[in-house]
Amino acid sequence: MLIDSHCHLDASEFDADRREVIARARAAGVLRQIVPAVAAAGWPGLRETCRLAPGLHPAYGLHPMYLAGHRDEHLGQLREWIERERPVAVGECGLDFFVDDLDPEQQAHYFDAQLRLAREFELPVIVHARRAVDAVIAAIRRFAPLRGVVHSFSGSADQARRLHALGFLIGLGGPVTYERANRLRRIAAQVPLDSLLLETDAPDQPDAGIRGQRNEPARLPRVLDTIAGLRDIAPDELARATAANAERLFALPAIDAHGSPVGAA
Asked: Which residues, 6 or more positions from 154, have their beta carbon under 8 angstroms from its beta carbon?
């Protein structure tokens, strides 16, 4: 009963076979997925994607890599979408200092505004942080109290500890399956179990078994098995713990093995 805590199921890469992708995920034991947005233009399509099947949970936000398309009025629209749609989180949002032509001040403007919304609506925030973890930590501290996840974590063990102290989880996906990812694999082995989420970031970040190919949520068990091996625990134990972490963070209802809410008739 795995939860893919970060999957862009609405992406155009899935247009040809989205229902089949969902079916393969369910067959692989991935019964729920968090589907974060990247830009205002994509919110309606993401909403429709999440209506395709049970277990698809939307988050709405403005991703830093799509900065050129963001406008201040989108922040007002985001407030309206949060009020009306009641998503499980705000995001994907954050900071990206890897791409040279993304203005840091403009990124911070949109990130800070989304942190304010997350705090106001008492929602978790899904954070993108590429070469920007320290700046993200500083922003989280400015707007505390907050909770959320830094997805596709690529920082240091010390940064992971500081995020944990702030009530944030870290998401790990395909990159941890590569044998040369030594620092990331050490973090996966050592961070507290209650601070871990599993993710695919599909269609991006394929695991080592499908290098260079389209990723999809049915690949999440490869991430599970890798991290379980690094921690020397049973995959079932890791699956239960990370699912519980996701349920707690995103306020998801518990479900049975068939995907139905526990206690439902």
From this structure: 129, 130, 133, 175, 184
102 torsion bin: left (phi>0), alpha (psi -120 to 50), beta (else): beta
Q: Retrieve residue 75's tokens.
A: 């922040």
| Residue 3, pLDDT score | 98
Instruction: Give the domain 2-250 fold.
Output: TIM Barrel (3.20.20)
* φ/ψ bin of 119: left (φ > 0), alpha (ψ from -120 to 50), beta (otherwise): alpha
| Token pair of 189 as six digits | 């082995």
Residue 160, Cβ neighbours under 10 Å: how many? Answer: 23
Q: Which residues are annotated as a binding site?
A: 6, 8, 92, 128, 151, 201
Residues annotated within a binding site for a divalent metal cation:
6, 8, 92, 128, 151, 201
pLDDT digits (tens, 9 = 90+) for 87-128: 999 999 999 999 999 999 999 999 999 999 999 999 999 999
Identity (one letter) of the amino acid at 19? R
Cβ count within 10 A of residue 122 = 10
